[in-house]
Structure formats: structure tokens, C-alpha cells
Design brief:
The chain has one domain. Helix 1 runs antiparallel to helix 2. Strand 1 and strand 2 form a beta hairpin. The chain is elongated, with a radius of gyration of 16 Å. The chain has 2 helices and 2 strands. The chain is of the alpha+beta class.
């Protein structure tokens, strides 16, 4: 099964009586590079999620340069 970036969510399409509930799958392959890099740099991101993002960036061929502050 593909890696998830966020849990699945629901989106509601339509108005009042004609609403339809649609599942939105949040796979990591559909996330932009900028959003993945922001997740890696965010201090609130859990280590497991950071590793998922790093694996996806390396799969895409992005070279990361780590700088010590």
C-alpha cells in the first residue's frame, strides 16, 4: 500500500440537500517538494513523518544539504 502523508479525509460536494461525501486520499507521492521540505524543517513534525518525507525526497532525486545553526 502506498505511503500516506496525512490521514484520509472527507470532502463535501454540493449544497444542502444534494451533498455528497467524497473520500480524499492523501498519498505522499501527490505532495509537492516544497511541502515535504517544510514538513522536514518543522519542529512539530514527528520523527516517523520526517523519515517518510526524507525517503520520498530521495526517491525523487532531491539532494539535501544539512547546515548546522
Amino acid at each position: 500500500m502506498p505511503t500516506k502523508f496525512k490521514p484520509d479525509s472527507f470532502e463535501y460536494i454540493g449544497l444542502r440537500g444534494n451533498k455528497k461525501q467524497v473520500i480524499v486520499k492523501n498519498y505522499i507521492t501527490a505532495v509537492s517538494k516544497a511541502e515535504l521540505i517544510d514538513a522536514v524543517n518543522n519542529s512539530n513534525t514527528k520523527p516517523k513523518q520526517k523519515q517518510k518525507c526524507l525517503n520520498e525526497l530521495s526517491r525523487r532525486g532531491v539532494k539535501l544539504v544539512w547546515e548546522s545553526v
